[in-house]
Write a structure and sequence with these properties.
Blueprint: H1 3-20, E1 27-33, E2 36-43, E3 69-73, E4 98-100, E5 103-110, E6 120-122, E7 126-135, E8 139-147, E9 152-155, H2 173-178, E10 188-191, E11 195-203, E12 206-216, E13 220-224, E14 228-231, E15 238-240, E16 244-249
Parallel strand pairs: 6-16
Antiparallel strand pairs: 1-2, 1-3, 4-15, 5-7, 7-12, 8-11, 8-14, 9-12, 10-11, 13-16, 14-15
Length: 250
């Protein structure tokens, strides 16, 4: 589904909300966590467009037991919509990879030795960044986001890869090493100060590698936020790599 189709779908759903009486809500609701009331409210024409946000500190959660979240409402027209999620902050190097329908991994290499991953380079050196994306099944409108450590700056290779959307006539070993396999399927590449973003309209089942260059510009030890991949229109199809550290030496 493209952006125009999405817009027409939203407009159709909006018209349906008017026709079905969705906008004439009139009911009360309540929220309890582990049998303790934590919030309540009234849904009507005046409050229908308001969002009620409730937060519970992780220290209030039970350990080694099931935590119970109960959301209830009284009778009345209209529907109650809610989202519940858990945010837990961890040191980046303790974040493990997640496979939610797509796998993504990132490694750093010396440009002249792309065989052994590295975790440190000297200031001014070029680094070969290799992203590996595994699609267990066909993926549509995939977005891959690779955050850069603060000590690295991506090198825009657009002049070398201006044929991103075209399958090369010949396959060369240097292309596989320094561009990756299936790089031509990523038809839109964006280089930002803090991350590199790839997108592909379709990825058939398989393993894909995209490589780009980065320059070590700032000395220090940096936390490296994990890379992620997801389907733009179905973000529940999601994958995340592992966190790590990277060091730039004087």
């Amino acid at each position: 589904m493209g952006t125009q189709e999405t817009a027409w779908t939203i407009m159709g759903l909006t018209d349906w909300m008017v026709a079905s009486g969705e906008l004439s809500a009139d009911y009360t609701y309540g929220v309890a966590f582990n049998d303790k009331p934590v919030g309540e409210g009234q849904a009507n024409k005046e409050t229908l467009h308001q969002t009620n946000q409730l937060r519970i500190d992780i220290s209030e959660m039970l350990k080694d037991e099931v935590n119970r979240l109960v959301i209830s409402r009284e009778a009345g027209p209209g529907n109650l919509y809610y989202t519940a999620f858990l945010n837990v902050e961890l040191p980046v190097d303790q974040i493990s990879a997640i496979d939610g329908g797509v796998l993504v991994k990132r490694d750093y290499f010396f440009v002249d030795d792309p065989s052994k991953p590295i975790t440190q380079v000297e200031q001014g050196q070029l680094v070969l960044v290799r992203l590996t994306v595994v699609a267990p099944h066909t993926l549509h409108y995939v977005v891959v986001n690779d955050p850069l450590p603060a000590g690295l700056e991506a090198v825009d290779q657009s002049l070398e890869t201006n044929q991103q959307g075209v399958v090369p006539n010949q396959f060369k070993w240097d292309d596989l090493v320094y561009k990756g396999w299936g790089w031509w399927l990523f038809d839109h590449i964006q280089y930002h100060d803090e991350h590199v973003e790839l997108s592909a309209a379709e990825l058939p089942p398989g393993t894909y590698v995209y490589s780009y260059l980065a320059r070590a510009s700032t000395i220090g030890t940096f936390q490296v936020v994990p890379p992620t991949a997801h389907e733009f229109y179905f973000p529940d199809v999601y994958g995340r790599g592992a966190g790590s550290q990277f060091e730039v030496l004087p």
